[in-house]
Specification:
heterodimer, A: 504 residues, mainly alpha, two-stranded antiparallel ribbon, globular, B: mainly alpha
Chain lengths: 504, 478
């Protein structure tokens, strides 16, 4: 089919063009703007289906590639392509954006057209991040994406939105500029910005360590890993519901994606020597942040901390192979850990997005996120309570949900590396259940303590559909993860072979 | 000395601008005080004519003419064409602003054109004397322009400060030139290069000469620690004069650096590199840090200029064609961005109201979403966020610095650009996150709106497709 030659470009530029169109339509014709936004997001979702159906999961090579010279003077090219790592993340992006547009249909009161435009433009830029094969193009998308998010938190956010959004922007900006220095250094070594050329470049240990650390600064902030996670609770609490969903579901995944696309293959030896650091940081995120989540009084903050803990599994899974190899002398189980990390990324995108949407549903009605203000919601909102309890179970890693698959894979893999790593990681099964279910107990069950809760109306059809679709997706990946793990297996195998070869 | 038609044709733009400036002076004198449309039209025509002449008589290569006093090369042509375009935009932004304040005098155009002539002479200079002539012509025009609102205490004070400090800086520059002359016996830049070829670069006389020259050049750039005039002049002058002061004199400063230090004293790179490094680091540091605490947007942009100058100097100290190309690209990018930023201040001002406080940008998104977007593009560009023009300017400079092997300097530069991002973000915060103080619609003529929009979109467009400008910079500085 002819359009498959430009499929990735379409996926990037259709939402951006849709966003500009919504802006042009303006505040006066709101209804038209909403439908244009819906149409743009819907078309993008439909366009992303062939990305999956025509994807060849038998090869690790880049597919759907496009190549155009862009800035000849510094050899920067408009080079796009996807493999088994980036393709699922693009699908996640197109899927979540549609849901966010639907969820924001009525809740937003001011500057509505700008709201939809920001999400659409951001969708295009995020897909660009996952699809870029040129490091400069990647960096442009990576940074440009901050702009709409900065505005989303700042314009439609809560009372401390200005503090939160500037902190978000400067934190992530600070992290990424070091990556930029490294990318330029790699360009000066190879003469091109092709990421795949960087993969083949042999580098000395000192250079690798410096590059690894600069990448770590960029990606650890984005993931976010302990101890550079403090921007996330602030950003999540202040962001509007849609902003929180995209932040948790997609943006955090870019950090994980960066590790797989940049850190591991470009600096394998530095990754090997510093994997203990990453594993330690991941475990601290899992255990310590789990305890922090336990004491939160604000629902959004609790989910934000739970996100940090769950993303700890992602980074843990990605950096296990070296430890597994050192311990057992074989790579058996190493792919499992990386697959677990990838599944965890997609699963966490769905579940945390759903949880933030649930909090949004409550917030729209009560204008409070404090757990203490609720109690007995199940009496007035039975449908909503059902879904919230389901997502809470999923967040706790209940078997049969997608979260179980990811966490189980990673824990299984970490047993091969070291018992105590597995032990610490497995503590999430207790902690995750504790903080999530305790929150649900206080919000959903019990007696109606607040007269406002007694007046709550259950979710309407629009809200139900959004949450039900997410619940279906979580369940589907939980009982049948093959469609997801199948497409990434060959790519991850290939990546594993690559990072096990020393570049020194 | 015989004058050939060829030599004359290469300086035709300068001759034309001089003649037209005199004509504008007469036209201004003979038209009524209220109506200076004729001077405006003539000034615009001057720029168009000069552009045509510069375009028509492009030197084929590097030509030294008028007994070694003047150099004509493609770098000069590009810089001059750029100056014409920016000055035309400056005139267009300023016209209504000055009219509303009853300050639309012919002198504004005459002085601006003489300043332009000074810049052109500096760009075309191949002798220390020619450079000095051009510099003084520019400086005197600038001092007077700053004082053009003579009833304002702030303006007069700024002009006085500028004049006194400028005179000292010119003196330093002249002293440096005389030391060079004493050591080599020539003022001709070409002969200077030859004379210095085998000289000991660490001779005290050369080092002193370099130090004094750099003081003069740093003053023109507004580089720290010789930056104290910049905020006062930017704040004290009328916004339309600030617009002028903040844009094309930077091109002149670039030419000054290029002609003296990069071309003539290129062999002494090792001696001046560390001096420039001190200037660059101080400029980035002081500019970015002090800008954070400003409440007046013109003062804030003044400190932001200082930090940008630090980046331009980074390009120079990286040295070699790559470094000079980066400095040129940064200078041109900065001038485009600065024109947009000061244009926005003029746009928000109206009769009896100067949009000078940061608070005046509050809630601009409610009052005019379009111009809030334009200002946002310019601010993100200055902060160095892709996909804006300013991003590639920073990339080029950092690339040059890394190429020269100074990794720590690159890290220092990116760190300070993160600090700098804060105060640009604050403007965006005011425009987008805060409620407006008043709901007055923007008053601006349609031509101003159009050109300012084009200016902002150019920043975005050149950010999306910087290839052409990069290639241009590379072709004139091989």
């Amino acid at each position: 089919m002819i359009y498959s030659d430009f499929l990735l470009s379409l996926l990037i530029w259709v939402p951006v063009a849709g966003g500009l169109l919504v802006l042009a339509v303006g505040e006066q014709r709101l209804h038209a703007g909403r439908w244009i936004a819906m149409a743009a997001a819907g078309i993008t979702l439909l366009l992303s289906i062939p990305l999956y159906s025509q994807f060849d999961s038998g090869t690790a090579a880049m597919q759907f590639t496009e190549f155009q010279p862009w800035i000849a003077a510094i050899n920067v090219n408009y080079h796009l392509g996807v493999d088994g790592i980036s393709m699922p993340l693009i699908l996640l992006t197109t899927f979540m954006t549609v849901l966010v547009i639907v969820a924001g249909w009525q809740g937003v009161k001011s500057n509505v057209s700008q709201y939809f435009a920001a999400f659409l433009i951001m969708e295009g830029l995020m897909i660009g991040v996952f699809a870029a094969l040129d490091a400069m193009l990647f960096y442009v998308f990576w940074e440009a994406m901050l702009v709409p998010m900065f505005l989303i938190i700042g314009i439609w956010g809560g009372p401390r939105r200005v503090y939160a959004t500037i902190k978000f922007f400067l934190y992530t900006f600070l992290g990424s500029v070091f990556m930029l220095v490294s990318l330029i250094y790699l360009y000066l070594q190879t003469g091109s910005y092709e990421i795949l050329d960087f993969h083949e470049l042999s580098l000395g240990m000192n250079a690798q360590l410096l590059i690894f650390i600069s990448f770590l600064l960029a990606f650890a902030v984005k993931v976010p890993m302990w101890p550079v996670h403090t921007w996330l609770p602030d950003a999540h609490v202040e962001a509007p519901t849609g902003g929180s969903v995209i932040l948790a579901a997609i943006m955090l995944k870019m950090g994980g994606y960066g590790f797989l696309r940049f850190s591991l293959p470009i600096t394998p030896d530095a990754s090997r020597s510093l994997d203990g650091l990453i594993i330690a940081m991941s475990l601290i995120a899992v255990v310590y942040i789990g305890f922090v989540a336990l004491v939160q009084r604000d629902m959004k903050k609790l989910i934000a901390y739970s996100s940090i803990a769950h993303m700890g599994f992602v980074t843990l899974g990605f950096f296990l192979p070296f430890a597994i190899y050192a311990n057992t002398g074989s790579l058996a189980g190493a792919v499992l850990g990386m697959q677990g990390g990838m599944v965890q990324m997609v699963s966490h995108g769905l579940i945390s997005g759903a949880l933030f949407l649930c909090v949004g549903v409550l917030y729209d009605r009560m204008h409070s996120r404090q757990i203490a203000d609720y109690g007995g919601v199940v009496n007035t909102m039975p449908w909503f309570a059902t879904l919230l309890v389901f997502f809470a179970m999923a967040n706790a890693g209940l078997p049969g949900t997608s979260a179980f698959v990811g966490e189980f894979f990673v824990i299984l893999a970490s047993f091969k590396a070291n018992f105590w790593i597995a032990f610490a990681a497995a503590s999430t099964l207790v902690l995750g259940a504790a903080y999530t279910l305790w929150m649900v107990k206080r919000v959903v069950f019990g007696d109606i303590a607040n007269p406002k809760v007694a007046e709550l109306k259950d979710i309407n059809a629009r809200e139900f559909i959004v949450l039900a679709i997410l619940a279906l997706a979580v369940l589907l990946l939980g009982v049948w993860p093959d469609p997801l793990t199948g497409v990434m297996e060959v790519t991850l195998d290939n990546l594993l072979q690559h990072i096990m070869q020393s570049k020194l | 000395m015989t004058l050939s038609a060829h030599e004359l044709s290469l300086v035709a733009p300068e001759i034309f601008v001089l003649a037209m400036a005199c004509l504008v002076l007469m036209a201004a004198g003979f038209s009524s005080k209220k109506n200076q449309t004729l001077s405006y039209i003539l000034s615009i025509l001057t720029l168009i004519g000069a552009a045509w002449l510069s375009y028509r008589f492009v030197p084929s290569g590097r030509e030294i003419i008028f007994s070694g006093m003047v150099v004509a090369d493609q770098l000069g042509t590009v810089l001059k064409l750029f100056c014409y375009a920016v000055l035309a935009v400056v005139f267009l932004y300023s016209k209504n602003y000055l009219q509303q304040r009853n300050l639309l005098k012919g002198e504004y155009f005459v002085l601006a054109l003489f300043g332009l002539l000074g810049i052109m002479v500096m760009i075309a200079a191949n002798s220390l004397i020619t450079i000095y002539l051009g510099l003084e012509l520019l400086s005197l025009s600038l001092y007077t322009l700053v004082a053009i609102n003579r009833d304002s205490v702030l303006s007069s004070e700024a002009a006085m400060k500028y004049f006194v400090l400028g005179a000292i800086a010119s003196g330093c520059l002249l002293y440096g030139m005389s030391l060079l002359y004493g050591a080599t016996g020539t003022l001709d830049l070409t002969e200077l290069k030859v004379a210095l070829a085998g000289a000991d670069p660490l001779r005290i006389q050369f080092l002193l000469a370099l130090a004094f020259l750099l003081v003069g050049i740093a003053f023109k750039f507004g580089a720290a620690p010789i930056h104290m005039w910049v905020p006062d002049v930017y704040q004290g002058a009328l916004s339309s004069v600030t617009l002028y002061v903040g844009t094309i004199p930077k091109i002149a400063a670039f030419a000054l650096f290029m002609r003296i230090l990069a071309e003539a004293l290129g062999d002494m790179y090792g001696s001046w590199r560390d001096m420039v490094m001190v200037l660059a680091i101080l400029s980035m540091g002081i500019g970015n840090l002090v800008a954070i605490v400003q409440t007046n947007i013109k003062r804030m942009l003044a400190y932001s200029t200082i930090s940008h100058v630090g980046f331009i100097l980074l390009g120079f100290l990286a040295g070699g064609p790559v470094g000079y190309q980066a400095a040129l690209f940064y200078t041109l990018a900065y001038v485009i961005m600065a024109a947009g930023a000061f244009g926005m201040i003029i746009l928000l001002s109206r009769k009896g109201f100067e949009a000078e406080r940061l608070e005046d940008f509050k809630g601009l998104n409610q009052r005019s979403p379009w111009f809030a977007l334009i200002m946002m593009i310019v601010m993100f560009s200055m902060a160095g966020v892709p996909p804006m023009l300013g991003f590639y300017a920073k990339i080029q400079v950092i690339m040059a610095v890394l190429d020269a092997g100074m990794v720590w300097l690159a890290i220092f530069a990116v760190l300070f650009s993160v600090i700098g991002a804060f105060y640009y973000l604050r403007i965006i915060k005011l425009m987008y996150f805060d409620a407006p103080e008043g709901a007055e619609p923007l008053q601006a003529e349609i031509d101003m709106r159009l050109v300012l929009s084009a200016n902002g979109l150019l920043v975005l467009f050149l950010g999306l497709f910087p290839g052409g400008l990069l290639a241009l910079c590379a072709s004139v500085l091989p």
